[in-house]
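Before the break, one more example. Copy the sequence into your notebook; we will annotate it together after we see the structure.
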Amino acid sequence: MSPVRRCSRTACGRPAVATLTYVYADSTAVLGPLATYAEPHCYDLCAEHSERLTAPRGWEVVRLSDGSAPAHPSGDDLEALANAVREAARPHDRGPDGVGRGPRAADPVEVARRGHLRVLRSPDS
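Here is what the structure looks like once it is written out:
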């Protein structure tokens, strides 16, 4: 038996990349990623046949993604990232004694070091 599953369509010998199943109760054809195991009620399809798949009149085709394609970030995600970078790059105000008054003023202070280990003291203590 061949380790690569082939397309179920007649006279097509290309490797299968998707599995087609039917949900008769909902009149739905479900095309998803290649199933782990070949089952008798499922059809394995190659890339070309899975792209060209159509359903009978009155039926719906549901295409499930396999998650391997990277999702494109939304505009909100990109805007939030840009705002975070701007905030990190913004210089913080310094007081007259040279001590920062911004978010960096609350950083822990290194008290001792041994090898790669450090003892940190909170600025509040």
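The beta strands are 18-23, 28-33, 43-45, 60-63, 109-114, 117-121. Residues 92 and 102 are 5 Å apart (CA to CA). Try to locate both features in your own notes.
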